[in-house]
Amino acid sequence: MPRCLDCRREVLWTVTDAGKRLAVDPEPDETGNTAVYRDGTGTRRSRRPSEELPLMAWEKLYVPHVATCPPRRKTTQKSPAVLPPGVLDLAAYRRRAGGRS
Ligand SMILES: [Zn+2]
Asked: Which of 19, 21, 22, 62 is most buried, judging by how many CB atoms fall within 10 Å of its CB?
């Protein structure tokens, strides 16, 4: 079984609808958001279930490995560097209000 290069855990490689490779955790998980099935050639295919195309009987839910990979979580969960503009506006408003009193 292939392993993740970042954390060395075992992963399953799937191919998405867009033709991209996506690693998922090897055990199916009902809380996952990725439906995986094997096509006729033995390739694991993955896709996002939707309202129009819900989970099929031959598909199982998996968790994308990026969601559980410890080294990658660190890099993907960084807070945004730029503050939303509303924060600055509020600070300016408070300064004006304070000056009046
Ligand atoms: Zn990993």
From this structure: 62
> Could you give the number of structural domains in the chain?
1
* Average pLDDT of span 68-97: 65
Report CA(80)–ligand 1 centroid distance (Å).
Answer: 23
Q: Give 42 Cα–ligand 1 centroid separation in angstroms.
A: 23
Q: Is residue 5 part of a domain?
A: no
Task: Please give the distance, rounded to the nearest whole angstrom, from the Cα atom of residue 101 to the centre of ligand 1.
Answer: 56
Rounded to two decimals, what is the model's pTM? 0.69
Tens of pLDDT, residues 52-82: 999 999 999 999 999 999 887 766 555 555 5
The rounded Å distance from CA 54 to ligand 1 centre is 28
CA atoms within a 13 Å half-sphere pointing along the CA-CB vector of 7:
15
pLDDT score at 97: 72
Distance 41 CA to ligand 1 centre (A): 26
